[in-house]
Amino acid sequence: MATMLAVMMAIVVVTGITSALHPSSNVEVVEATTLHLRGEFVESNLGTAIEPDGSATVRIIAEQYDFVPRCVRVPADTPVKFRLTSADVVHGFLLPDTNVNTMVVPGFVAEVRTRFDAPGEYAMPCHEFCSLGHQAMWGHVSVQPKDQFAKLTPVKRTSCVPE
Ligand code: CUA
Questions:
Q1: Which of 15, 61, 82, 149 is the most exposed place for a label (fewest CB within 10 A)?
Q2: Is the CB of 137 under 6 A from ligand 1?
Q3: Residue 99's pLDDT is what?
């Protein structure tokens, strides 16, 4: 037993040092109890925003048992940065078949960068058990052709109601 423990500890130390397996260094904190009152995650600032350099930033709050906004539209062929935080417990954010997969922890901002080559629809399940309504916690990302996205009003960027 002692040998097994020693081997496992050695694996943790060696991979930590040589393979840089450690928590991300850009830890960003946020006050979870006042998300709706001030700062980056107030309601009017949620959804997809276009930055001066043409990239997109998507801000989403995960809470029991929904994503706010529940659906976001993003432009195709554009760098997209997702910034998420939680208002209550630990949730998860995953876009199948992309590199987007993160835990969303209250008190911290989770940031994931990606790019969608082509238009498409993604269902985004919460993949961290967050209590009784977990299985109903789904959102949606709709990737729009770049020229169509440019014509959307800010309200339509956070709604997937058909035109
Ligand atoms: Cu949120 Cu499971």
A1: 15
A2: yes
A3: 86
